[in-house]
Amino acid sequence: MIDWVQTLLGGRPRMRADLAWKTRQSAAQELWLVVVDASASTRRNQALSDAKGLLAQLFEDAYRQRARVAVMTASGSSPVWQVSGEKASAALNDWLAQLGAGGGTPLLQALEEVSTWLGMRRKRFAQEQQRFLLVTDGRLKAWSALPAIDCPGLLIDIERGPIRLGRAPQLAADLNADYLHIDG
């Protein structure tokens, strides 16, 4: 595309070489990486149902901001990628409507996969702004060292009920992520 201001500042163009061209500058792309703990314990006290409402809003925001999303669920025996770095779309709402909870919590395995995947993606898209969101009740038996997630992160604690283990704040601290409880 011709930059007419710069071209005319140089005088009346007489030949093609006198034209100034605009360089295309695109804003750095954003990637929102979401890991959802959908283990059986998240069914208690409508925790996962409320998290689904929050995720629906997040996906809508990602669509409006033209951000790319990557979504992984941690339930059953191993984590599963639902979307990996695609533009946010209505397909995420369909997946979200069908999301159920059950099985174990392969959350540590999910975090390992996420760390590796982000490292590879960072090499491929060096200018990309990455953000990490973990939705969990923090009900893990134990963990020693967690993988490094080298981007800004937020852990949303969905643990509810009369008996809480309260492990999510420590998990957030160990991941170097901000902490927020879903109830405020």
UniProtKB/TrEMBL annotation:
Annotated InterPro entries: Mg-chelatase_DI-like, VWF_A, vWFA_dom_sf
Coiled coil: none
Domain VWFA: 33-138
Entry-linked Pfam families: VWA_2
Protein name as it appears in the record: Magnesium chelatase
Organism, as annotated: Pseudomonas fragi
Lineage: Bacteria, Pseudomonadati, Pseudomonadota, Gammaproteobacteria, Pseudomonadales
